[in-house]
């Protein structure tokens, strides 16, 4: 999971969403009305489609799930579930792109909250996941730094085997790309450097590269990269960082 930047809505869509919310607000059965509106054919065509395009542009890699970062995002997920707060059904700030596994099989209507009622689930568009989670690169496993991090690992299944194994493989790919980038820089082969950057940016598990870039400038970086000290110097290169940091 990485930090994402949410753009402003285009004018027509920004005007339409409050109208749909008002229709829910005036209903005696808000949840039922919200579900019916969300599934309405004209809404799917004129609201879902542009929302999806915006979310796809925000997503890491090639339209990856904003929770697991592995599978392609296929669903518009309601961060705060419709069943809990139907008035946020058409709230742009409540929409994320998710794969069907994260959305329908794992998260579903789960939405843990703290004692003060604030969400324990991480929203990558409003907070930096790296403040709550640390990725163990050698194992591909997330370790929680906060209660919010722990809840997110649990709800989204961030340490399920297919993800941990995928992150380990992604680390290998990133290291190969870093070697290619370094070779291109040494040989003044700009196309090699460009291809290496594009490969890293396009692959699944964008969180792996982001974690490596963050850890390269953190205390104890030399220990983290003890087996690949050459990679540490590359990850600290200002030019590379400007191209890869989300």
TrEMBL record:
Q: Which Gene3D superfamilies match?
A: 1.10.30.50
The residue ranges of the HNH nuclease domain are 50-104
Give the keywords, sorted. Endonuclease, Hydrolase, Nuclease
Q: Which domain of life is it from?
A: Bacteria
Tell me, what is one Gene Ontology molecular-function annotation carried by this entry? Answer: endonuclease activity
Q: Which residues form a coiled coil?
A: none
Q: Which protein, by its recorded name, is this? A: HNH endonuclease
């Amino acid at each position: 999971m990485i930090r994402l930047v949410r753009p402003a809505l285009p004018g027509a869509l920004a005007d339409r969403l409050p109208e749909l919310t008002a229709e829910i607000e005036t209903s005696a059965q808000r949840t039922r009305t919200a579900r019916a509106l969300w599934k309405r054919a004209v809404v799917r065509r004129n609201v879902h489609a542009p929302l999806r395009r915006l979310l796809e542009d925000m997503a890491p890699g090639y339209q990856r799930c904003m929770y697991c970062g592995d599978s392609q995002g296929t669903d518009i997920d309601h961060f705060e579930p419709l069943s809990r707060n139907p008035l946020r059904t058409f709230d742009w700030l409540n929409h994320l792109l998710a794969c069907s596994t994260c959305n329908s099989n794992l998260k579903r209507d789960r939405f843990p909250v703290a004692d003060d009622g604030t969400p324990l689930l991480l929203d990558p568009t409003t907070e930096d996941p790296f403040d709550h989670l640390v990725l163990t690169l050698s194992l591909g496993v997330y370790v929680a730094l906060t209660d919010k991090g722990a809840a997110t690992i649990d709800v989204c299944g961030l340490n399920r085997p297919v993800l941990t194994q995928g992150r380990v493989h992604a680390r290998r790919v990133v290291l190969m790309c870093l070697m290619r980038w370094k070779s291109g820089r040494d040989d003044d082969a700009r196309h090699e450097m460009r291809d290496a950057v594009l490969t890293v940016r396009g692959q699944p598990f964008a969180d792996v590269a982001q974690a490596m870039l963050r850890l390269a400038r953190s205390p104890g970086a030399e220990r983290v990269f003890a087996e690949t000290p050459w990679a540490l110097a590359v990850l600290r290169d200002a030019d590379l960082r400007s191209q890869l940091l989300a």
